[in-house]
Amino acid sequence: MAAISRDEVAHLARLARIEMTDTELDHLSDEMQVILGAVARVQEVAGANVPPTSHPLEMKNVYRPDVVVPSLTNAQALSGAPAQEEERFKVPQILGEE
Amino acid sequence: MSSIFKSASEIANSLTAGDVTAVEVAQEHLDRIAAVDTDVHAFLHVDTAGALAQAAAIDKRRAAGEKLPALAGVPLALKDVMTQEGIPTTCGSKMLEGWRPPYDSTVVAKLKANGVVILGKTNMDEFAMGSSTENSAYGPTHNPWDLTRIPGGSGGGSAAALASFEAPLAIGTDTGGSIRQPAAVTGTVGVKPTYGAVSRYGLVAFSSSLDQAGPCARNVLDTALLHEAIAGYDPKDSTSINAPVGKMVEAAKKLDVKGMKIGIVKELSGDGYQAGVKARFNEAIEALVSAGAEIVEVSAPNFEYALAAYYLIAPSECSSNLARFDSMRYGIRVGDDGVKSAEEVMRMTRELGFGKEVKRRIILGTYALSSGYYDAYYGSAQKVRTLIKQDFDAAFAKADVLVSPTCPTTAFKIGEKANDPLAMYLNDIATIPVNMAGIGGMSLPCGLAEEDGLPVGFQIMSPAMRDELMYQVGGTLEAALLSKWGKPLLSSAPALGAK
Lengths: 98, 499
Description:
The structure holds two protein chains of two kinds.
Chain A: H1 6-15, H2 22-39, H3 74-78, E1 84-85, E2 88-89
Antiparallel strand pairs in A: 1-2
Helix pairs in contact in A: 1-2
Chain B: H1 8-17, H2 22-40, E1 43-46, H3 48-63, E2 75-79, H4 106-113, E3 117-122, H5 156-163, E4 169-173, H6 180-186, E5 189-192, E6 213-217, H7 220-230, H8 248-254, E7 261-265, H9 275-290, E8 294-298, H10 306-321, H11 342-353, H12 356-368, H13 375-396, E9 401-405, H14 421-425, H15 432-437, E10 440-448, E11 455-462, H16 468-485
Parallel strand pairs in B: 2-3, 2-4, 7-8, 7-9
Antiparallel strand pairs in B: 1-3, 4-6, 5-6, 5-10, 9-11, 10-11
């Protein structure tokens, strides 16, 4: 099984948008190694002839009628917002200065 | 006499007869919570005013001569993963501290429509990830049988609330055993219905293809009553099953298993199972044989891969589901100083808001879904899921229901496994296959292990959409054990709050 490096864990943390401390990254690299070693067992029986199951119920194309139904008001939807302005969610800057 | 030691159906009968009011019943339970919850810590939020107001409304309707649903006026403890409008919903996480959802989950809407009085929100492992409730950001819950031990998880708060007589009914959710394992280690009853039987709308998602809400209580009949109250088709959940709810209450009252075939799963016993767990399990089997059931042994060779597959599928879905906690629309926000970018704020918030186990699973899931690793990990896990379903299909061709111990051991000490994720994950070895296949699973108490005097859980598994079979077998077994013991198991639990 491929070893997972500390740099790789740091990359995953960046992808997952979690600012991890050095100590956390050290611990997690060790733990990931152990956990991945254990879960890799699935490869022993997952032959090419076995179809995957993504969901316990086989359902396809669950539609509802295309009609407007009651939903949250603006005030309700914004009620948990960390910051708001003019009936909108107020968020930190998304693009840089340049 | 106080109502706190009565079952939900006894309370319902007293309310109907007019011997007691819903306000009195709610107040007795709120007093009980005030007396013992400092020790147990089952609740994260107690809605005293709201509960009394709901109870008063029920009393008023009853006084006006209205015919009310079976559970009207009976109190309930709600796992903090279910939204209830205006009531704090944290999922045991700092991420949602202070958040009050603007809507009711379908389960809560159904409870309200049934007149059930919601006492408050119960403690849980953060975002339902754990088997001990130690992963709650708000401190652990203690097992009422021994306060130094875990009450199971993730729904340890709901199970402990039942076992400490703080509520006769509770709601749990079960992704890999979070209803059944807490029920087992607290000597209570918990049911994970067939996937899709109870709406997931308003259940904060952990692993969407595995998550299922279900009823918890102190006996099989109460669990069946609650099951019928919360189940049913919901257009707001696209995986909801559009079929009538089965007759759970009727099945729980049958007390007859003559001619039924009960399959013992060979792989869910043996090494790793505590001696007292095996002894109580075998006695329960004897009781079922005496009641007229036929025992067959079934083999499920791929179950040994279920745990590994689960710890790929659940983290993968969790890494995707928990991406919604981005500090933009609700929940906490950290580091927004007008200079930092949205991405920096997001990263700082998620670092502070998520606990250790949640981060561990997000990283594991992100890895398993990465290009280059997807086929080897997530893809292989999905194939194992097919093999487990096939094992169940073959087993159910030989037996009406399957049985096993719910957990390999009784409740362990708080802190004992906190630093060993793999040892912690092993708790769920017998419960996980049920979630992988989307079938029904029940845990009910089958006695105390002699080596530690702690409760042992008996698991019953039924084919998808045949949940009533669990109630039929569970009700029969419960009655047989009760007549043997002469009193309910929970009456042997130590008294709480007597200081």
